[in-house]
Write a structure and sequence with these properties.
The protein is an alpha/beta fold. The chain contains 9 helices and 9 strands. It has helices at 10-13, 20-27, 64-77, 95-102, 119-124, 141-152, 162-166, 200-218, 220-223, and strands spanning 2-7, 32-37, 50-52, 60-62, 82-92, 106-111, 128-131, 185-186, 189-190. A hairpin with a 2-residue loop joins strand 8 (185-186) and strand 9. The structure holds adenine (ADE). Adenine (ADE) is lined by residues 86-88, 112, 131-133, 135-137, 140, 143. Residues 86-88, 112, 131-133, 135-137, 140, 143 line the site of adenine.
């Protein structure tokens, strides 16, 4: 998979890809990440990427021209499955969207800044708009990093144990059950006995029951989704 990220602040985005699972995925060539600094696509001496909004109002608007140049150049080099715009008014990101995106070959992620992009960018180039939650970040970069992390860990081969992504919270619309490791007893707090039974159907049943109870208590909305 190849992800091209268009941003005015590439330095804000780099570190999540330089450690742990994402770093290893890049080294193993399971994913390629390319950063594109919008200022490299400007045509004036000031390298302007934004301007005042027509009609008045607070906040700057990202110009269409540099974004057009960058996206058009990328599209001339390969086909893209999606051009995603990170914005608080997009569709709320969830595991299902992460699963869908992980099946793609090439995607572009455009990070918004200031008040956002000129509407014509959304009308002409963007195929999907994603929000990571009902709050406003200073820009789309951190949101893009969240989406990339959630997507990349689903690419086959990225996680050591293939099944571990499948047992994550939200796969099957359930939260994950409790997990334990050494020691068997800590300051009087014991690990549930069933986990030592060696009876794997019984352990699976316990985990399912716990996952269901947890989901019902914390996220009943997930149980009514299809
Ligand atoms: N840009 C600013 N806030 C955002 C959010 N919540 N999700 C995605 N992109 C954003």
């Amino acid at each position: 998979m190849r992800i091209d990220i268009i941003t005015v602040l590439p330095e804000l985005l780099k570190s999540p890809f330089e450690a742990s699972i994402l770093k290893r995925a890049i080294e193993a060539q399971l994913v390629e990440i390319h950063f594109h600094n919008l200022r490299d696509y400007t045509s004036d001496n000031y390298k302007s990427v934004d301007d005042y909004q027509y009609g008045g109002g607070a906040g700057m608007v990202m110009l269409i021209e540099p974004i057009d140049k960058c996206i058009t150049k990328l599209k001339s080099q390969r086909d893209y499955d999606e051009v995603i715009y990170m914005t608080p008014d997009g569709a709320r990101f969830n595991q299902q969207i992460a699963n869908q995106l992980s099946l793609h070959k090439n995607i572009i992620i455009l990070c918004g800044h200031y008040k956002g992009v000129d509407q014509r960018v959304r009308d002409l180039f963007v195929t999907k708009e994603i929000s990571i939650g009902d709050y406003v970040l200073s820009g789309g970069e951190l949101a893009a990093a969240v989406v990339c992390d959630a997507v990349i860990r689903l690419i086959p081969g990225v996680l050591g144990n293939e099944t571990s992504a499948l047992t994550d919270s939200f796969q099957d619309n359930l939260l994950a059950p409790p997990i334990y490791t050494r020691p068997r007893e800590y300051k009087g707090h014991k690990v549930p006995e069933v986990l030592f039974s060696g009876n794997f159907p019984e352990i699976e049943k316990w985990r399912e029951e716990k996952a269901y109870a947890l989901t019902k208590a914390r996220r009943p909305d997930l149980l009514s989704e299809d």
